[in-house]
Design goal:
Structural class: alpha/beta
CATH class: Alpha Beta
Shape: globular
Strand content: 5-15%
Radius of gyration: 19 Å
Number of strands: 10
CATH architecture: Alpha-Beta Barrel
Number of helices: 11
CATH superfamily: Dihydropteroate synthase-like
Order of helices and strands: HEHHEHHEHEEEEHEHEHEHH
Distance between the termini: 44 Å
Length: 300
């Protein structure tokens, strides 16, 4: 095996953006509420040590009311790790504080990531004037006749992604590598209209479009197994297996990045994997039949 082929064989399946600096996790919320900077730094280091290429970052609503605390946490995290930060705020003013505080030198020269830009909040492109950035682009909503509308079909998702990505390249001098398209992943148990099926089809459309060559495709994995039991009918970890099932189908279509907990141990699943097989059946279902198929995941 040549050095080149060996490096490809050992390359990670996905680029992981660590998702744990978020008060949506009870343990992280406790760290933030107590102002435990050492604990937050330890959490940041654990994610980086587990292979995270960047860290998603939010301290929740407190960022708007207490910008000094926001600055303190950003600086503490950057003292602990050298990976870039992905600032997860839809508010322009909060993003402004984040980007002005961020130190590229602390991240080895890497650009921060703005999470999330969208057609419906295009004014956020002004943030690119503060410093060079990468952008996580939400493809789940579009602007139509001045009104924001949710995207429900693969064509709508891919069309929105293409319009917005090409605008960022042509009008704002971003490179394709600077753009990460977020294809929303839905809770499986509530997906009675095939949103995950359409998301996978959209990944295929985006990943095969030559005009979008070089951009990245991502999604938040933790949504898919919400409100489901911990164990599958075959005794395996249901939540992890479902996340891996989605990735197994999405990776060949062009998905290369995940927003997730980096120590979860993601892997592609073999064709005979029980959860993967049932997941494929769920994707083909609609209406109340979705619930009947989902039950097969955890009931023999």
């Amino acid at each position: 095996m040549t050095e080149s082929s060996a490096s490809k064989a050992n390359a990670p399946l996905f680029t992981v953006i660590g998702d744990r600096i978020n008060p949506g996790f009870k343990s992280t919320k406790a760290l933030l509420e107590s102002g435990d900077m050492a604990g937050i730094q330890a959490l940041a280091r654990r994610q980086a040590d587990s292979g995270a290429a960047a860290l998603d970052f939010t301290v929740g609503p407190r960022a708007k009311d207490d910008p000094d605390f926001l600055v303190e946490v950003i600086r503490a995290v950057q003292e602990a790790v050298s990976v870039p930060l992905c600032f997860d705020y839809p508010e322009h003013e909060v993003q402004k504080v984040c980007l002005e505080t961020y130190s590229p030198d602390q991240a080895g020269g890497a650009k921060p990531i703005i999470n999330s830009m969208a057609e419906t909040r295009w004014h956020m492109v002004d943030l690119l004037k503060i410093r060079p950035c990468r952008v996580m682009l939400m493809a789940s909503e579009r602007l139509e006749d001045g009104i924001g509308k949710p995207n429900k079909t693969a064509a709508e998702i891919a069309g929105t992604a293409k319009r917005a990505a090409l605008r960022l390249v042509r009008e704002h001098a971003l490179t394709p590598d600077d753009i990460i398209v977020d294809v929303s992943i839905s809770a499986l148990i509530a997906d009675t209209v095939g949103l995950n099926r359409e998301a996978l089809a959209a990944i295929g459309l985006i990943g095969s479009d030559p005009e979008l060559s070089g951009i990245h495709i991502s999604g938040g994995l933790s949504n898919i197994a919400q409100q489901l039991p911990p164990k599958a009918a075959d005794g395996s970890d249901l939540k992890l297996q479902l996340e891996c099932a989605f990735l197994t189908l999405a990776r060949p279509l062009g998905m290369d990045t995940v927003l997730a907990t980096p120590w979860r141990g993601f892997q592609t699943l073999p064709e005979d994997n029980y959860v993967l097989g049932v997941f494929k059946q769920v994707l083909q279902a609609s209406g109340t039949d979705v619930l009947r198929q989902v039950r097969k995941l955890y009931r023999k």
